[in-house]
Known about the structure:
The complex is a heterodimer of chains A (111) and B (114). By secondary structure, chain A is mainly β. Chain A contains no helices and eleven strands. Chain A has strands spanning 3-5, 9-13, 18-25, 31-37, 44-49, 53-57, 60-65, 70-75, 84-91, 100-101, 105-110. Chain A binds chain B through residues 4, 30-33, 40-45, 48, 50, 87, 89, 91, 94-104, and chain B through 2, 4, 31, 33, 35, 40-43, 45, 48, 56, 90, 94, 96-108.
Amino acid sequence: GQSLEQPSEVTAVEGAIVQINCTYQTSGFYGLSWYQQHDGGAPTFLSYNGLDGLEETGRFSSFLSRSDSYGYLLLQELQMKDSASYFCAVSPRVGANNLFFGTGTRLTVIP
Amino acid sequence: ETGVTQTPRHLVMGMTNKKSLKCEQHLGHNAMYWYKQSAKKPLELMFVYSLEERVENNSVPSRFSPECPNSSHLFLHLHTLQPEDSALYLCASSQEASGGGELFFGEGSRLTVL
């Protein structure tokens, strides 16, 4: 089976840094993705980790540790528009994008 | 604009109705997906089509019937649904075998079953 655990809610102050963790137990693993979804909107791709370590894309970074079955999304210099739900997702096998998603973390950025 | 368009955006239907959800992608991708999003639950993968052939069906009840007439269009036919089927149905596309974990989602069809 597939299981991905994330905190359900996180609140942070504008300008601060926040980390959203994801632990997974899956029958196959090839990589970990992160998606952002605003209320009423489509999930949009943020980043992907196929190898251990940190991937940086502007204010967002994502980290993977295969040995710990763990990853996180780091958001820096938080802005009000970053208030959204964030999902981690596992690619179960090479070359496949039939992703399995976590339950999502609701991030609220406050002034 | 994600390049994936879903219609209708909202649908209310009775348990005895038959309706269809439509998805169209303008990205030149060769794989398309249906996901179900319910409150407090992970996105659930329902169906995967690659090169217009169904490659995955995650034990979805037969009251949901997918159709993929070509690589740009995907339908989800609905009949005799239950109230617990009320959810947001998301369509996505990707370039199969590219890996990289990147799906392109539409904004979804919000379904309410009375």
